[in-house]
Amino acid sequence: PNLLLAVRNRVVKRENVSLVIIVALGLFLRSWDLGWNGFNGDESIYSGQAASLLGEQDFLKDFAVFRAHPLLLQSLLSVAFALFGIHDTVARMVPVIFGTLSIFVTYLLAKELFDRKVGLVSSLVLALLPFHIVFSRQVLLDVPLSFFVILFLYFVTKFKISERNIYSYWSGVSCGLCLISKEVGIIMLPIFVA
Fold it and tell me: Which alpha helices (H) appear in 138-193, and where do they start and end?
C-alpha cells in the first residue's frame, strides 16, 4: 500500500499531468485528419521505397530501394506497412510519433538546462508551433533527424551535468541515429567529439 501511494503521488504530480496533457495535445494536432491530402513528391518516394523494402512488386518497378539518403525512416515505414498495410495515413503516423516524442524530449532538455517550468513552456510552444505540426505530419527524413538531434543534445547535456559515462554512450548512439536519419546529421559528429 505505501509503495502504491508513493508511486501514485509521484506520477500524479501537477508537472507530470501538465506534461501528459501537452504531449497528448501535440499528438492530437499532429494526427488529426492525417489523410486529408495526398503525398507530396518526397513523401511518395520514401513511402514507395518502404514498400519496395517489403518486396511489394507493384512498387519495386517504380521505387528503387537505394537512392540518395540513408534508410532509417524507410525501414521504419516498411515495418509499419507490414503491420498495418500500405496506406498513406500509416506512413504518416511514423513521423507523427517522432514529432510527438520531440515534444517530450524538448521538455527533458529544457528541464535539464533550466527548470521544470521552462521545460513545460518549451514543450507547449513546440506542441503548438504551426510549422512543427505541419512538418511532423509529413513523411520526410527531417522529422526523425530533428528528434534525434534533440535527443543527442539532451544526452550531451546530461553527460556534462552528471559526468556519468552512460550518457556519453547514449550521446554516441543518438549521434549515430542522426547520421542514419539523414546524411546532414553528420554535423552532430564534431559536436559529439568536442
Answer: 142-162, 165-181, 188-193
